[in-house]
Amino acid sequence: MKIFHMQKSFPLDEKYDLCSQIKRSSRSVTSSIGEAYRKRKYHAHFVSKLSDADMENTETQVWLDYALSCRYINRVIYNESLRKAQEIGKLLNFMMENPGKFSEGIRIRKQTEN
After folding, report:
1. Where are the domains of the chain?
2. Is residue 109 over pLDDT 50?
3. Superfamily the domain 2-113 falls into
4. pLDDT in the model for residue 1
5. pTM, entire model
6. Cα–Cα distance list, 37 to 8, 59, 60, 85, 108 (Å)
7. Which H helix or E strand runs over 73?
8. Are 64 and 85 in contact (CB under 8 A)?
9. What is the pLDDT of residues 16-39, one digit of tens each?
10. Taking the mean position of all CA atoms in its chain, how far away is CA 48?
11. For the chain, how long is the longest CA-to-CA vector?
12. What percent of the chain lies above the pLDDT cut of 70?
């Protein structure tokens, strides 16, 4: 949401370029995580969707680099946004490396139903 609000201050001529790209990639991170969660009992699919989220998170970081270079955001906002994006990347990598931790409840539920 910070990125969504941040891009509103970008110049109007960036509306269909940088604004559109940074909004799309940042939103795609969360939607890919949601899709991964719904497929968490299928480890390969779970990891694949998390990989998509990680890719979009990296793309968002690239757009932040552009926003800083174009002076649409200052260094403080850039550093805070980049730090958060890097933390998201770490969390996504943990989830990709440990898919079983996110599907344990599904297995337990199935075992108790039998």
Report:
1. 2-113
2. no
3. 23S rRNA-intervening sequence (1.20.1440.60)
4. 81
5. 0.83
6. 30, 21, 21, 19, 17
7. none
8. yes
9. 788 889 888 999 999 999 999 999
10. 13
11. 60
12. 90
